[in-house]
Design goal:
The protein has 183 residues and is mainly α. It contains 7 helices and 2 strands. It is globular.
Amino acid sequence: MKTIFIGLIFILFDFPISLGPVTVGLIPTFVGFFLIAKGVKALYPYSYSFKSANTVSIISLVFSAALYAIDLFALSPLLLSNRAVSFVISIISAILYLTVIFHILKGIQELEEDNDIKLGYSQLISCWKIILVSELLIISAGFIPPLALLCSILSLIISIVFLVFFRRTDKSFTSLVILPQNS
């Protein structure tokens, strides 16, 4: 799960930097999706939800790599100048990364249920719900900059809390010897 944790850092902390006409993410999200896909693949034997997370991670990797390339080659002003197109891309990006996280959390829930252990699923899903709401607010508040900024700060704070809880889950999982269900 450590690889998933590192991937989540790449996804949840996407800070853009501008270099003249080029704006790219300081931490590329596609690398995060690659790490998540790699991490959940190792967890296939434990839960079907990890296979679902891998599928969505690969789709997200391709989508975010395409967006990164568009930004890197300064094609954003040409391809994404339409506000409606940017809005749709924001929605697709949010749906993809929230879906990846949701499937990972479902896998953790199944691990808890199948092995009668506590890995912190309830705290993680609570954080995920707040992240979901904050993303919806950010997207809908995009037309009101002060509100969008406030929602972005909320999202940053809850993302940090989520990562702290996920790290605890990672440590708990690593300390347990759990036999895969398919063995």
